[in-house]
Amino acid sequence: MTALAVSALALSACGASSDSAGGSEDGITMGFAQVGAESGWRTANTKSVQDAAEAAGVDLKFTDAQQKQENQIKAIRSYIQQKVDVIAFSPVVESGWDTVLKEAKDANIPVILTDRAVDSADTTLYATFLGSDFVEEGKKAGEWLVEDSAAVDGPVNIVELQGTTGAAPALDRKEGFEKAIAANPNLQIVQSQTGDFTRSGGKQVMEAFLKNTPDIDVVYAHNDDMGLGAIEAIEAAGKVPGKDIKIITVDAVKDGMTALSEGKINYIVECNPLLGEQLMDLAAKVVAGEEVPERVVTEETAFTQEQAKEALPNRKY
Ligand code: AHR
């Protein structure tokens, strides 16, 4: 925990968090409504939040919404009833949050968005948004493909495994990728469907693509897990992932990086799940009534196969 967080926590414990509706005498109480446990990324994110809460002395009330918006809304309402000091959540989809966010605001409980955004026009409904720039991630994926296919004369047929329909990372990674390849008409997305950010979803959709789409050159998967599912489908169809069909994914979790280092994936754009410590720092400031930036963007990189081999031994997730 940073010195700033320590002092902000101390302030809040002394009662400086007058805007907050309640909380414990010992420190901050945070209600956290997680999306679910759909991917390796999500598991790492949950652990990061739980570990950071413990280290910061934050009393964390945690809910797994099983990728259902109604479960997240229920959890948020229950946190409002419990008068927690701050609510944090990673919205499963972008829209449909205004009513419950307004309820939190009316109860004077600040809300922090982590990982994923909402599309609410009223940005006063939340204190800050901590997470990745998903459009930029999609752009990096597309730019790599443009460079990699520079010498290819004919068509490059891309199939896209989208994340959860309506989720910010699915919408934004699609947008960024499409923008990056737009000036190259030989790069065409010939099929695009959701695999819901899960390995089984990626496998199932890829099996269907392989049956109904001839000449697939590239898979663009919105996360590692769907890419790993696609690898299983490609191998079962007697093709070689990474060679017969190139694969680009987003996340860079250990399983994805292992497949990249083995040549089964060609490129991974990083999406950092380790948001816990920054979240606890922001929560401490928000509860203490301090100013926080409206947007905190996570720093990220991308990996080639060679870079994955180097990075893997020290990979934390
Ligand atoms: O919102 C982040 C995305 O959600 C990750 O890329 C994906 O793996 C997860 O399920």
Automatic annotation (TrEMBL):
<feature type="domain" description="Periplasmic binding protein">
    <location>
        <begin position="36"/>
        <end position="291"/>
    </location>
</feature>
<feature type="signal peptide">
    <location>
        <begin position="1"/>
        <end position="21"/>
    </location>
</feature>
<dbReference type="InterPro" id="IPR028082">
    <property type="entry name" value="Peripla_BP_I"/>
</dbReference>
<keyword id="KW-0732">Signal</keyword>
<dbReference type="GO" id="GO:0030313">
    <property type="term" value="C:cell envelope"/>
</dbReference>
<dbReference type="Pfam" id="PF13407">
    <property type="entry name" value="Peripla_BP_4"/>
</dbReference>
<comment type="similarity">
    <text>Belongs to the bacterial solute-binding protein 2 family.</text>
</comment>
<dbReference type="InterPro" id="IPR025997">
    <property type="entry name" value="SBP_2_dom"/>
</dbReference>
<dbReference type="GO" id="GO:0030246">
    <property type="term" value="F:carbohydrate binding"/>
</dbReference>
<protein>
    <submittedName>
        <fullName>ABC transporter substrate-binding protein</fullName>
    </submittedName>
</protein>
